[in-house]
Amino acid sequence: MKINGNEIRPGNVLEHKGGLWVAVKTSHVKPGKGPAYAQVELKHVTEGTKLNERFRASETVERVRLEQNDYQFLYSEGEMLVFMDMETYEQLEIPRDFIGDRAAFLQDGMQVMVESYEGKPLGVSLPDQVTLEVAEADAVVKGQTAASSYKPAVMENGVRVMVPPFISVGEKIVVDTNELTYVKRAD
């Protein structure tokens, strides 16, 4: 699908210079002299290299539509993560480093969205928030609670998150998987 250069938004996947690129940041610039343009920071989908490009409003670029399918996380086998398609029940193996640090948030039976292009997986979207149990947390220092201070805590999956002082070991909390931050106590 062709779109104009000024319609590019962060998250769009574009076919550019013979490869697939994801728009990371966009800013629209209107110089005092000359036509307006969009300054777009692109990241190559598979290689991870970055590129800054200018697209004029009159230019057109090819926006790629990705297939989005619901998958369920089954288990990890060594460095591979195994997912099952919710419609066809086919299994898909993806390397752990493909997801990166966020792979620690995968839980048995978790629903994820796998984006693919021509049958090749390009990205895995985890739920924005997950509920985890606090495995380790520092003790509260007397007098420290007056200011809004946070203390480090280690979740059951080994991820470190800064939590409010009233959170203790064994409590369940909701964690943002994108920012790796504390959201609230679990109900």
TrEMBL record:
Domain Translation elongation factor P/YeiP central: 68-122
Major subcellular site: cytoplasm
Pfam families: EFP, EFP_N, Elong-fact-P_C
SUPFAM superfamilies linked: Nucleic acid-binding proteins (SSF50249), Translation proteins SH3-like domain (SSF50104)
Alphabetical list of PROSITE patterns matching this protein: EFP
Role according to the record: Involved in peptide bond synthesis. Stimulates efficient translation and peptide-bond synthesis on native or reconstituted 70S ribosomes in vitro. Probably functions indirectly by altering the affinity of the ribosome for aminoacyl-tRNA, thus increasing their reactivity as acceptors for peptidyl transferase.
Protein name: Elongation factor P
Chain's gene name: efp
